């Protein structure tokens, strides 16, 4: 489903370091795979009823108690309780519900359905399809699709707040198209071009990743991408594709690796990019099968990176996604279906 190309070759002397990084990465993957998540019995114990979900939502939204979204005052009265709780601000009389102004606004589904969706999506290692959500939640497919996309939108908006900094590996890749019969390689038809980037710690371990659909691999597109997603002063490592030199326009240093004869997955310079792209391929083929790449690529990619960038925090991912959903402005179904997320 996804193709990555990097026409590069590396310094053969780097392979000793490469082996050490590989061993470190195996240990890191074990730390990720064996960390305790939130068990299903524990989830139902905490969030099994509407009133529990309402209390958890209120606590997550206003950790220090209700604050009027219009004027900021804390003095208020409660007009209605339970999951339909309505607050009225004393000074300005503004009324707001628990879900008003959040991604849940306008929903006719119970909070317990949303909480279960957040739990299932946050705990699923490789993502979860709308069809799987439909089955697990016991709702219609259109409802499951909307829940899925609204939560992915919340993840995308969270991810958009971060830029990559320091040492950043970048590569060009494509989403979709492998089975379309189009020609293979850069410039293939029926594919969504995307930029994959991973920032590294000083000892070469991955910190954060970004996967961004771009109009094409042009100097202009790379310059705009770097401006939006890479902190000035970073060093960008890429293959020899000419357009990557445009990262210097946003104050980044550029270190291309230009060699021939070896596939990119064999190159230590691109270990983490290829690991991320490999995980993405597994996630998309295992969970989503097919979706409208051109329309929804950014949202699916952001949902993947959201999970990857929080891979060491499985036990708190549910709470974090709840907070992201609260912070995400309401999106009417029409805008979710039509609008592409920009992040
Ligand atoms: Zn007020």
Task: Give a quick precis of the structure.
With 343 residues, this protein is of the alpha+beta class.
Give an account of the 3D structure.
The protein is an alpha+beta fold. Helices cover 42% and strands 15% of the residues. The chain contains 11 helices and 9 strands. The protein has helices at 15-33, 40-47, 50-61, 111-123, 130-137, 141-159, 219-229, 271-288, 293-309, 314-327, 333-338; strands at residues 2-5, 76-80, 86-89, 95-97, 167-175, 192-200, 206-213, 235-238, 253-256. Strands 1, 5, 6, 7, 8 and 9 form a 6-stranded mixed sheet that branches. The protein has a 3-stranded antiparallel sheet with strand order 2-3-4, with no helix packed on it. Strand 3 and strand 4 (95-97) form a beta hairpin. Residues 1-14 and 179-188 have low confidence and may be disordered. Residues 68, 70-71, 73, 89, 91-92, 94 line the site of zinc ion.
